[in-house]
Design goal:
With 381 residues, the chain is an alpha+beta fold. 27% of the residues lie in helices and 30% in strands. Strands 1-15-3-2-14 form a 5-stranded mixed β-sheet. Helix 1 runs antiparallel to helix 3 and helix 3 runs antiparallel to helix 4. The longest helix has 23 residues. The protein is elongated. It starts with a helix and ends with a strand. The relative contact order is 0.11.
Length: 381
Amino acid sequence: MNKIFFGSLVGLILFEILNVYFIMPMPGSQRMRSIDIAYFLYDFRWMFRIIFGIGIVLTFAAVFRFKKWLPILSILILIAVAYLFNFNMAADAMFLQPRQLQMLSAKANKITKDRMIIGVEHNGESKAYPISLIGYHHQVLDTVGGKPIMVTYCTVCRTGRVYEPMVNGKPEKFRLVGMDHFNAMFEDATTKSWWRQANGEAIKGKLKGQKLPELLSYQTSLEKWFEIHPNSLVMQADQNFTEKYDSTYKYERGKSMKELTRTDSLSWKDKSWVVGITIGKQSKAFDWLRLKRERIVNETINGQPIVLVLASDDKSFFAFQRHSASEKFAIKKDTLVVGTKRYNLKGTALNSVENESLKPVKAYQEFWHSWKSFHENTEKY
């Protein structure tokens, strides 16, 4: 009886630990390919709990008659471990959703304009979501131009993405379930599939292989966003989470000292910043430090000529398709120049109605370890 009781007890304690270990940033957990075992443990969690629980219940009385306090102490340890790992260390218990989503105009806005934001525009409406806020929440549900959106950010990967929370044509709700290879994962409420934040792909569950529709988004300073979108609304801090938000600017400026969110000072290190662009099946990464020196890059990806530009604030970046490979853009005071043509950072032609506006290209700033993890064949510029 002792072997069954204590074996079941130890087995259940180990299960509760491993059930969280593989999907949270614990020593070694994010550097192994453990998503299959993590999902297996999660998918069959109640089976494990019931089997081990039966072993504990059926043998408790017999063990108690001889050991007295020991089985009771063991049960208390089990309860403490289960509570710690399921309620304190679970991702959706650590990072909560906003209780009040307040969006204000530029005139009423309380977010300082030098803060970084993820911006999105649709059907003539534009909105901005400060990284200092969504970096804690990880996801924010809203609508823009009548379209439901899920604004996401993972501080460990430095990835901002905006998705349409639609699965098989139907609205879906998601919860933060943990992370894989340091990238946040969301679980849909209907099928319990796990979705990767960096590319919106379901990596485990019934919907494995499907992707969430992604909207074009931008990472800029709020000041630069207002210059381009003066009528934009801005997400404000939820006072229920004031202590959780990044008020120090350290993360945004790359000055964080935390192991998971720090920035490497040299290029092409795990925590170095890059701007990643994917066109078709080809991906390319651009070193942030080099972009700060050169400010503008004319390049071709998968046969498509593009231009990548860093604004004068050294924070805001934009990418566009070039009309032809022969066009070589320059930048002057945040104006894109090619020949006699002029464009603003929105890609709008400035000096002639005949000039075709530039088509924007999705471009993302993130840590090099993140980009290369999810774009295995990426090239370096």
